[in-house]
TrEMBL record:
It comes from Puia dinghuensis. Keywords: Ribonucleoprotein, Ribosomal protein. Belongs to the bacterial ribosomal protein bS21 family. Transmembrane segments: none annotated. This is Small ribosomal subunit protein bS21. GO terms for biological process: translation.
Length: 64
């Protein structure tokens, strides 16, 4: 749970901005999307390897 300390004289827009920044830093939305479906560790590793191969091909100039 995110808690924002706001002073009485503080504008509601500033408090909302603080909340949004804290929400983004906590990566709550990323965690929720991650938990929506289960990915097997082997699939996760395969994705990482394929991304690395793709980046390497771009860097070497083989892929345009």
């Amino acid at each position: 749970m995110l808690i924002i300390d706001s002073k009485d004289c503080e504008n509601i827009d500033k408090a909302l901005k603080k909340y949004k920044k804290k929400f983004e830093k906590a990566k709550v939305l990323v965690q929720l999307r991650e938990r929506q479906s289960y990915t097997k560790p082997s699939v996760r590793r395969r994705e990482v390897v394929l991304k690395a191969v793709y980046k390497q091909q771009i860097a070497s100039g083989k892929l345009d």
